[in-house]
Specification:
- The chain is an alpha+beta fold and 169 residues long.
- The protein has a single domain (12-168), classed as Peptide Deformylase, CATH 3.90.45.10.
- 30% of the residues lie in helices and 30% in strands.
- It contains 3 helices and 7 strands, in the order αβββββββαα.
- The protein has helices at 25-41, 126-139, 150-168; strands at 45-47, 57-60, 72-83, 86-92, 95-104, 107-113, 119-125.
- The strands form 2 sheets. It has a 5-stranded antiparallel β-sheet with strand order 1-2-3-6-7, sandwiched between helices. A two-stranded antiparallel ribbon has the order 4-5.
- The longest helix has 19 residues, at 150-168.
- The two termini are 27 Å apart.
- It binds zinc ion.
């Protein structure tokens, strides 16, 4: 297991539409590295392209908020259904120090495969639903700043420029 570098806004891989993956040993090793990376960053979620690989894999880990929670692995996920609407403040490991309240569905049903190759379905609400929707966007190349109002984008434009410059360096 290795902690991988997290790519920041400005890296083109964050805008890539990720491809489905086979559940083989290399995928399992990669998932183990993603888990180590997420734990190290103490984030709630991580998508594969945030560590530079455009694969349809993401993690959700509520343990920073609920110690009894375990990390959940979603490989080749499919959103089956969403409903409701909720405003919640989001951050993103690829956008350090940027937080913004975003409205997204309150409930989501997602089907995916876990790291052992088992298919599962989860009906999520609250923060877990929020993390799933945020991470699912990542693997489609969508970012939370896409939901920002023009005024909010204007307010963070300086921070975005810095991130872009840093990831080009
Ligand atoms: Zn993110």
């Amino acid at each position: 297991m290795a902690v991988l570098p997290i790519v920041l806004y400005g890296n083109p891989v964050l805008r890539e539409k990720s491809q489905p993956v086979a559940i083989d040993q290399s995928t399992k090793n990669f998932v183990a590295d993603m888990i180590a990376t997420l734990k190290d960053a103490q984030g709630l979620g991580l998508a594969a392209n945030q560590v530079g690989k455009a694969s349809r894999i993401f993690l959700a880990d509520l343990s920073p908020l609920e110690p009894a929670e375990d990390v959940r692995v979603f490989i080749n996920p499919q959103i089956i259904e969403t409903s409701g609407s909720m405003e919640y403040e989001e951050g993103c490991l690829s956008f350090p120090d940027i937080f913004y309240r975003i409205t997204r569905p309150e409930f989501v049903t997602v089907r995916a495969t876990d790291a052992s190759g088992k298919e599962f379905e989860v009906k999520a609400d609250g923060i877990l639903a929020r993390v799933i929707l945020h991470e699912y966007d990542h693997i489609d190349g969508k970012l939370f700043i896409d939901f920002f109002s023009p005024m909010a984008k204007e307010m963070i434009s300086g921070k975005l420029k810095k991130l872009k410059a840093a990831s080009a360096a």
